[in-house]
Amino acid sequence: MQAVGVVTRLESLLGEFVSPEIRIAVSLGIVIVAVAAAGLVIPQAVDRTRRVTARWTHNRFGDRVADAAERIEDVVPISLILVILVRVVQLLLFVLTVIALLIVWGLVDVAWWLIGLLEVAAPTATRVAMTAALLMLAALGNNVLQDLIKEFTAETTHITKHQEQILTRIAQVTLLVVVGIGVLSVWRIEIGGILVGAGFLGIVVGMAARQTLGSLIAGFVLMFARPFEIGDWVAIGDNEGIVTKITIMNTHVRNFDGEHVVIPNDNVADRAVTNRSRDGKLRVHVEVGVDYDADPNHAAEVAVEAVKDVSLVDDNPHPQVFPVGFGGSSVDLDIRFWISPPNPQVRWRATAAVIEAVKARFDTESIAIPFPQRTVGQRAVDEELPAERKAEMGSTD
Questions:
Q1: Do domains 190-278 and 282-364 have the same CATH topology?
Q2: Domain spans of the chain?
Q3: What digits encode the pLDDT tens for the residues 210-226?
Q4: CATH topology of domain 282-364
Q5: Would strands 239-246 and 331-339 be described as parallel, antiparallel, or unpaired?
Q6: 3-state helix, strand, coil in the chain (%, to 5)
Q7: Which single residue of 34, 68, 209, 245 has CA 20 to 30 Å from 89?
Q8: Of 397, 391, 324, 311, nearest to 354 (Cα)?
Q9: What contacts 248, CB < 8 A, 6 or more positions away?
Q10: Which of 307, 301, 302, 332 shows the shortest CA–CA distance to 319?
Q11: Single pTM value for the model
């Protein structure tokens, strides 16, 4: 009621004491001032403020601020934001000009209605602006976090690519949660009920997807345990090959037949993992048999000399040959040598080269590599034995 009285009194005053000529003159003055402010003063003020701020920060902090500004420009279009800010100010100035013109021409009730509309719309507009600012800050923070994690991991060898990926995802999820809570707070949405609902939903999802959650947890365990890295030659249970990719849920291995095997991380955690690439060297075993008439010590020395001549075999540790057993037709020797880098191609080529070199040296030294032999004989039958016994022994022979 008080507002209605103010409007009525203002309308009566304008109608009694203000002539149309004065209203026209005042209206022209308001329009000229508004156009000058919107078209010249505001853009010039924003541009000058930006230049002065940039000059002051450069003089105060040096090139570090320039680098940070370039990083921010890559994510947040500051120029576009300033243009939008200028347009918003110009729009507000236009609305204020319209209100002033309405008051000058005695339409106070319309002006008052427009002011009330602005009062209602202002909180919503403010929340929209704050939400947009939070989203832009989230985008900027995401890029900054990625750069910081990359710089941190580049300076150390203790963090693998898989761990870098996990750290990046954790940081992104944390940033997303913080921004989400901030947006809900801006719009005054109670998050208590949402959290309770999310808790019940988490219980239901956890019960329905136990295996998936197990793989997810195993992925975090693998990140910290680091049993292997991308490019390692590993054996996981019955699967053997080169690790090509490690995700939160699965480990990807390319076997030696060119097949890509996807192993859930919970299966990786439950099985013995053999990493043949970890130490940068790998010992290979090749067995060879020599004739019982040959001297095993001499054969071992000849084999060692032959292995040393193979270029794919490392000199340190030195190759070794040991007698390991009595075979059906030979004395078995175990040839042990090291290769580097440890990969399947080097192992196959080195094994083939060692077999060829040992076979050639044994031929030169007249050391026979016997093949399996079997002696077939017949037992003599005692004539004094009963016929049934003779028949049994004959069938046995």
A1: no
A2: 2-153, 190-278, 282-364
A3: 666 677 777 777 777 78
A4: Alpha-Beta Plaits (3.30.70)
A5: unpaired
A6: 65, 15, 25
A7: 68
A8: 311
A9: 166, 169, 215, 216, 219, 220, 265
A10: 307
A11: 0.55
Structure tokens at 244: 């090509």
Instruction: Note whether 46 and 86 are within 8 A (CB).
Output: yes
Token output for 245: 């990719």
The more confident residue out of 268 and 164 is 268
Q: In this structure, which amino acid lies at residue 152?
A: F
Position 192 pLDDT exceeds 80: no
Q: What does the pLDDT read at residue 1?
A: 44
DSSP letter (8 states) at residue 62: T
- Closest C-alpha to 251, from 260, 117, 342: 260
pLDDT, one tens digit per residue, over 288-337 is 999 999 999 999 999 999 999 999 999 989 999 999 999 888 999 999 99
Question: Which residues contact residue 311 at a Cβ distance below 8 angstroms, ignoring those fewer than 6 apart?
Answer: 353
pLDDT over 60 at 16, yes or no? no
User: Residue 381 carries which side chain, given as an amino acid letter?
Assistant: V
Structural contact between residues 381 and 393, judged by C-beta atoms closer than 8 angstroms: yes
Rounded (10°) CA dihedral 301, 302, 305, 308: -100
pLDDT mean across residues, the chain: 81
Q: Is the pLDDT of residue 179 over 80?
A: yes
Name the class of domain 190-278: mainly beta
- CA dist 81 and 260 (Å) reads 48
Cα separation values, 39 from 42, 43, 51, 123, Å: 7, 7, 19, 27
Q: Say how far apart CA 76 and CA 325 lie, in whole Å.
A: 74
Characterize the bridge pairing of strands 320-326 and 282-290.
unpaired
